[in-house]
Amino acid sequence: MQPPPNSIANQRISTISAHLNPPHLQVHPPHLQMEEGLGSGFGRANCRAKGGSPGFKVAILGASGGIGQPLAMLMKMNPLVSVLHLYDVVNTPGVTADISHMDTAAVVRGFVGQQQLEDALTGMDLLIIPAGVPRKPGMTRDDLFNINAGIVRTLCEGIAKCCPKAIVNLISNPVNSTVPIAAEVFKKAGTYDPNRLLGVTMLDVVRANTFVAEVLGLDPRYVDVPVVGGHAGITILPLLSQQVKPSCSFTPKEVDYLTDRIQNGGTEVVEAKAGSGSATLSMAYAAVKFADACLRGLRGDAGIVECAYVASQVTELPFFASKVRLGRNGIEEIYPLGPLNEYERAGLEKAKKELAASIQKGISFIKN
Ligand SMILES: NC(=O)c1ccc[n+]([C@@H]2O[C@H](COP(=O)([O-])OP(=O)(O)OC[C@H]3O[C@@H](n4cnc5c(N)ncnc54)[C@H](O)[C@@H]3O)[C@@H](O)[C@H]2O)c1
């Protein structure tokens, strides 16, 4: 028997509506709040909603930016997300109003400016952080350090205070230094859990899969290249010899071409965008792929393995990107590098040198 139409309508309203804008979290300007009622005397506060659908609470910090906006849209489409908080220092009311009209289950709330940071963070299970300035042609990721280090520090101080158990996916560059910065902030606050702090290097894996598929004439969905080390130039180390799905081999020329293109994929986009920013759309795609893996891990799914830049004992460096298994507590296992060929061993030595300096720079930023 069909339920009566009214009950279906009430159920739908209860899933998506009333807690959209609880009074203490309102960010809409007064004229918009008045418009809502449109003279009918009925506004959102009058909706019959009881609460959100089951799922995880996710916040995006830097949600109005080039990465933040498509990332917010894609996370709104993720059925594992029940509540989506969008935080930035500008423009979140507009982005939130826009995205909140998508007819997917996640409830979206916007927060703008430092004074709303704590409300944005409280109760979150997963934080995705693309806040900070991107590169322009001629810049390295390290050139962003001076601005982005301070932004990451402020946001992590808020996280330590409001949601110390949340999983953190850090995208802001230079990732090789911002992850050590975040770790130091959390240590200072006494909340550091290395299993919950992950630098997002997924775009390097996404690029590696795409470029390898192109060279081999394969569907990229069936290619799986581990990319280890870090997230900048020569620290990005694709392990082409371990490209196992399907197993294949490359000529030395192909290895040179692929390694160079994967390491400089970010610069390829920065130059093509000619001053208007760095990768945003492919980054949002990669960030969502990674966040979804973290959420499936939190849900308790088995066998979730992705590459990420994390606190590590795989090498002598305190942070290193390699394959990790994700679970209910964040990182549950970090895998060793596996067999490397001579080309990869040489690349690893070069990567480690640069990586060590970037890690030290991040740690010193907080300690000194
Ligand atoms: N990890 C990766 O693979 C990868 C790939 C591409 C870009 N990135 C990095 O991601 C970052 C963002 O890139 P983008 O293209 O979206 O830049 P963008 O300038 O378009 O957006 C950044 C956003 O951060 C916001 N912001 C600045 N200070 C903030 C603060 N204190 N709190 C909250 N938000 C703040 C800005 O208002 C802006 O909306 C850059 O650092 C970029 O280098 C990383």
Give an overview in words:
The protein is α/β, with parallel strands linked by helices and 368 residues long. The chain has two domains: 52-199, NAD(P)-binding Rossmann-like Domain (Rossmann fold, 3-Layer(aba) Sandwich), CATH 3.40.50.720; 202-367, L-2-Hydroxyisocaproate Dehydrogenase, Chain A, domain 2 (Alpha-Beta Complex), CATH 3.90.110. Helix content is 43%, strand content 16%. It is built from twelve helices and eleven strands. It has helices spanning 5-16, 30-37, 68-76, 92-100, 117-121, 145-162, 175-189, 202-216, 252-263, 265-273, 281-299, 342-367, and strands at residues 56-61, 81-88, 107-112, 126-129, 167-170, 197-199, 227-229, 236-238, 304-311, 319-327, 330-334. Strands 3-2-1-4-5-6 form a six-stranded parallel β-sheet, with helices on both faces. The protein has a three-stranded antiparallel β-sheet with strand order 9-10-11. The chain has a two-stranded antiparallel ribbon with strand order 7-8. Strand 7 and strand 8 form a beta hairpin. The longest helix has 26 residues, at 342-367. The model is unreliable at 12-24 and 26-37 (pLDDT under 50). Nicotinamide-adenine-dinucleotide (NAD) binds next to helix 6.
